[in-house]
User: What shape does this take?
Amino acid sequence: MAKITDISWEDFSALSLEEKRPYLARYAGDGMPYHTLFAQQFDRDILERLCALSNRIRFINKSKEGALYLKSVLAHKRAMLYFSQPSSRTFLSHLNACQLLGLTTSSVRDAATSSEAKGESKIDTIRTFSSYVDLIIMRCPEKGLAEQSAWELSNSERPIPILNAGSGKDQHPTQALLDIYTLVRSFEEKGGLDGRTVTFCGDLLRGRTVRSLSYLLTNFNDVKQIFVAPKELQVPEDVIAILKQKGVRYEIHDDLKAATRESDAVYMTRIQDEWDESKGESAKIDTSRFKFGAEELALLGKDGIIMHPLPRRDEIATCCDHDPRAMYWRQMRNGMWIRAALIASTFGYEKELMNCGY
Ligand code: ASP
Ligand code: CP
Assistant: This one.
């Protein structure tokens, strides 16, 4: 069995994401991740198990007895939420997922309030947090920090799990999990997710949710992916390389109406202008054709769905908000359930929750 304690950081960091996967799994050998860092850790079996566990937790929580039982499951554990980038949903849904399972939580939401401001390194900061808790959920602007933190902690006297809640422009694996859960639930009584067409629209270059979800979709059979964006913000080559390697059907163009006509799901995204290299760079790009409004809604099939990781600006018109196909509100609540499922699985409680009497 691949052990992260048997490999140097240099050798580990040089591996491909697929090669890293076994080093990040739970030693129990149930296939679930211990550290959750990127989408490449999830195959179809794990995704289906997490969706089933989310449904189970959701059901158990409906009764007072069930909710109190859930609160006892991880009442002996503590979690730290370290968010050095802004967040509403990811922070609150992880916090509430922890609370559902009884974990006690603490948080740092601004590096300026931690001793990083006194020059402490990021890795020392993470090791400091690990002294007090049993899980670190972290969002940060740096691409590889969650991964390096996972290696460092696994090779320390406090080998606690790291959960990546968004790393730079790179990955947002738990967002992709909730997106998959939303897609699976939306199509479960309509023939399933296999064979569907999903369109991504907006800032596909810098949107980390797109990279993570595009990968997770490759676990399903014959799901076509369409990428609609201004040429300056089109999907990066590394995402396409994976689709080519896996033989996934895809299209790249700039016609949202045409894509909507053939899509089962349209996944809108915000222009990620916080990453602009020069001030006002994104504002110079014509994004007017990359917005979903009444005309696009009229072109979407009756079983189609509109998704968005949120927050939105004006890329989905508010006139869509009360349409039953607008899935973005439910999508964020799904995040709480699947994050609870992931946290419970990280600590080895999948079987107990699936089999408990509630
Ligand atoms: N909330 C998502 C993220 O953190 C999407 C966005 O901010 O546009 O990646
Ligand atoms: N979708 C998402 O990550 O939202 P927040 O940035 O508000 O956490």
About this structure: The first helix runs from residue 9 to 13. The mean pLDDT is 97. Residues 166, 172, 208-209, 270, 309, 311 surround aspartic acid (ligand 1) (CB under 6 Å). Strands lie at 78-83, 104-108, 135-140, 162-167, 197-201, 224-228, 250-253, 265-268, 305-307.
